[in-house]
Amino acid sequence: MLYEKRERYGFFMKSLPLEGGPMKADKPYVVAIGLNDIDEYYQCVDKGIVVGDKCFIRFLEAVPGGMIANAACVMAKMGIPTYMLDTLGDDPYTEVIRKDMQGYGVNMDYVDVLPRYKNCRTEIILSEGERTILIYANDKPFVTMDDKKLALLENATYVYSLMTDIQKIQDYKNLVDHLYRKGVKFMFDAERTTFTSFDNETDRFFFDRASVLSFNDAAIDQLCAERGPSVVDELIGDTDKIVITTLGAKGCVVQTRDQKIQIDGYPVTPVDTTGAGDTFNSSFLVGLMNGWPLEKTVSFANAAAARSILYQGAKTGAVEMAVINNFVLKGGKNQ
């Protein structure tokens, strides 16, 4: 009803100053909607993880993380004004998360702190260049919309999120449609666990309204399972939609109705692949926000993701653009 009432009476915040934020016409910005958490890192000390067997691990560190939060840090560090929409619990990690995000330049003014709830936690176990992620169940409520948050979203250039995160917001379909009609663009990280199929009604709701969709290799296999590879062409249709497929060490494929760009991966030895997809997606959005040609945008995101896995941590991709350019100039070598 909040969105219908605003449209019915012509009450849009486009003409009003945003408290704590720029106007859309003055400086483009991104709103990231998703979870912040604490990532507890462990290292296997003797062998890789084998299902049904023992595995000795060593604690490394506990650092703020979260897929969308990680991406927000990358964008902010690369100079894109970025706002976070989420809720935090009220525990010893609350200020750690807030200060960490602010340290990268992410605006946290629209993130609510909820008493009596704990922050989300994740265990990341590193083994043989890969990682196993264990996510603790958490019943902390998600974003509750109000006029201030709606104004922030209405003035955004892009909203970056998971489709499943958007669904946690009450009356999410009316919210998405309202923003879509206002000209706000959506980029979704289409992880395999965030959708069911091309023909699923809820999934199609998001697919149809997205400007950019990013699938990894497992997710694209799930999308194409029933109809085959031609489903990507059907997904794009006659729109300006961009469909990304990240292929890990094999690089990526980016497709629009007019072109298809395929780039090989960098021959690097990974230290920690956590956050590589977040780094690719957010770096890609950095290119779009800067108005770069698609080929330059793809190349930059590919390099940013490759560099990020040379270091431990989910936010190693959150560096200045000059660092990525230097990585490319050195042929993709560790710095």
What does this protein structure show overall?
The protein is an alpha/beta fold and 335 residues long. Helix content is 34%, strand content 21%. The protein is built from 12 helices and 14 strands. The strands form 3 sheets. Strands 4-1-9-10-11-12-13-14 form an 8-stranded mixed β-sheet, sandwiched between helices. Strands 3-2-7-8 form a 4-stranded mixed β-sheet. Strands 5-6 form a two-stranded parallel ribbon. Helix 2 packs across helix 10 (276-289) and helix 11 (294-308) crosses helix 12 (321-329). It is globular, with a radius of gyration of 20 Å. Residues 9-25 have low confidence and may be disordered.
Characterize this entry briefly:
This protein has 335 residues and is α/β, with parallel strands linked by helices.
Spell out the key features of this protein.
21% strand, four-stranded mixed sheet, 12 helices, alpha/beta, eight-stranded mixed sheet, 335 residues
Largest sheet: 8 strands, mixed
If you average the pLDDT, what whole number results?
90
Give the tally of β-strands: 14
How far apart are the first and last residues' alpha carbons, in Å? 52 Å
Supply the number of helical segments: 12
Strand order of the largest sheet: 4-1-9-10-11-12-13-14
Model regions low in confidence, pLDDT < 50 over at least 5 residues: 9-25
Q: Roughly how much helix do the residues carry, as a percent range?
A: 25-40%
Query: What characteristic shape results from the CA principal axes?
Result: globular
Strand content: 15-25%
The topology string of helices and strands comes to HEEEHEEHEEEHEHHEHEHHEEEHHH
- Specify Rg, calculated over alpha carbons: 20 Å
Given helix and strand content, the structural type is alpha/beta
